[in-house]
Specification:
This protein has about 140 residues and is mainly α. It has 5 helices and no strands. It has a domain at about 20-70 and about 100-130. The protein has helices spanning about 20-70, 70-80, 80-85, 90-100, 100-130. The chain is rod-shaped and about 100 Å long. The chain starts with 20 loop residues before the first helix and ends in a 6-residue tail after the last helix.
């Protein structure tokens, strides 16, 4: 058999970890949390700007579709002559539903949802990114 003591280190391995080890680990974890929160803040703030532009575009598209479809003329009948609209309420309601631009309405609502959700996430990440306390 070979002598394995030649490969052994000359100084003994300490049995206890360094007293600063826990603080070092906690500092590193806090630093990683802070970096992740800043990355998420950058992502969600970019998404907020893009979704705000998309929301404005979707609202303009919805306004153009409402103006060209004639829904506003049918809806104006409700305010100008409500007695006729109430007398023929089924035909009136079906005419409104038939002329309603559903695709642009859905696009506007989806863009509104994305905008509000990105606003919520941006605010949450601002709190996490800039008010984090490092363990010392």
């Amino acid at each position: 058999m070979r002598n394995t003591l030649k490969n052994q280190p000359t100084s003994p391995i300490p049995t206890e970890p360094s007293p600063r080890l826990l603080a070092t680990i906690l500092d590193r974890i806090a630093l990683e949390i802070h970096k992740t929160a800043r990355r998420r803040f950058a992502f969600f703030s970019t998404l907020l700007v893009v979704s705000a532009g998309g929301f404005v575009f979707a609202i303009q598209f919805l306004q153009a579709e409402l103006a060209s479809s004639g829904v506003l003329h049918i809806a104006a009948l409700l305010f100008s002559d409500p007695a006729v609209a109430l007398r023929y309420w089924q035909d009136f309601g079906l005419s409104l539903l038939e002329l309603l631009p559903v695709a642009s309405l859905i696009a506007a609502l989806v863009s509104l949802f994305v905008f509000l959700e990105s606003l919520h996430s941006t605010v949450r990440e601002v709190k996490a990114a800039f008010h984090i306390s490092l363990a010392s």
